[in-house]
Amino acid sequence: MTQENQQQKNLRDVIIVGSGPAGYTAAIYLGRAGYKPLVIAGALTPGGQLVNTTEVENYPGFPEGVMGPDLMEAMQKQAEKFGAEIVFDDVVSVDFGDGSDKTALKTVTCDQGDVYQARAVVVTTGSDVRKLDVPGEKEYSGNGVSYCATCDGFFFRGKPIVVIGGGDSAFTDAEFLTRFGSSVTLIHRRDEFRAAKIMVDRAKANDKMSFMLDSVVDAINGENGSAQSVTVRNVKTGETTEVPAAGVFVAIGNTPTTEFLNGALELDEMGYIKVDGASTQTSLPGVFAAGDVVDSVYRQAVSAAGMGCRAALDAQDYLDSLQ
């Protein structure tokens, strides 16, 4: 195959970088519109964070719940049904141009060496939860250790819960979890919180909540395959305490997956891709973004899917404008 033919083969109307609910939903919509999108879904965890999630009970349409991997597999098959091509590789660099030429092709380079070009790109690479990196965290992930209070709080009804963190997200999670847990202990490494004062005051007034300050979790302990307690160390005294915890919720932040962009798109102060208002338009024409790589607030599968739909429609309007 000549280089010209290879370039033509790798030229697409639209490329979706990432998968998960946002990426696969965008692929479904763009596929049904006849654009045959290429989805570069990732090499290790295609499907995003949901492939590491057990039962999902709050995704509409599944009254009995659905396993995260099963939901992502179904979305992938639906996208393929409508003409999407899935490539299981990682994008390592991009060239989106400088925005001066609206019709300029966008180039993405994959880890295995393949180079693709497209008239439009949708970025749905999500974010990674920050982890504690302590013994037991990986072992009990999905069996007591969680990174999503709204997803998993229900499973710990009437049981002791700990929340690790000191920002707005940690306090939001902790307050939500008081609906379910017999108690909620918030553990924070400093003696002051980063959360808004009103949130802190509300938490302190909640009889179900208690606090361990100047403290870090050194280990998550369990038996019979489930978390049972955490080992907490006071950073000032060195004293350790074992705190009962059937549910361990880690809320120390998320890191959006944007390294591969290498400054190609404008990001906010937390590293999330900036979009224009309620649209999914990024700082460059023809490049759109959706899901957790944009959203630092909601971070739900259903909201990511909705944003993926919007990104597909925005991309479709852009492609139509080129004709």
UniProtKB/TrEMBL annotation:
Keywords assigned: Disulfide bond, FAD, Flavoprotein, NADP, Oxidoreductase, Redox-active center
Keyword Oxidoreductase listed: yes
GO terms, biological process: removal of superoxide radicals
Source organism superkingdom: Bacteria
Cofactor: FAD
Enzyme's top EC category: oxidoreductase
Cofactor binding mode and count: Binds 1 FAD per subunit.
Catalytic activity: [thioredoxin]-dithiol + NADP(+) = [thioredoxin]-disulfide + NADPH + H(+)
Molecular function terms from GO: thioredoxin-disulfide reductase (NADPH) activity
Signal sequence bounds: none
PROSITE patterns the UniProt entry points to: PYRIDINE_REDOX_2
Pfam families listed in its UniProt record: Pyr_redox_2
Annotated GO CC locations: cytoplasm
Entry similarity comment: Belongs to the class-II pyridine nucleotide-disulfide oxidoreductase family.
NCBIfam families named in the record: TRX_reduct
Quaternary assembly: Homodimer.
Annotated protein name in UniProt: Thioredoxin reductase
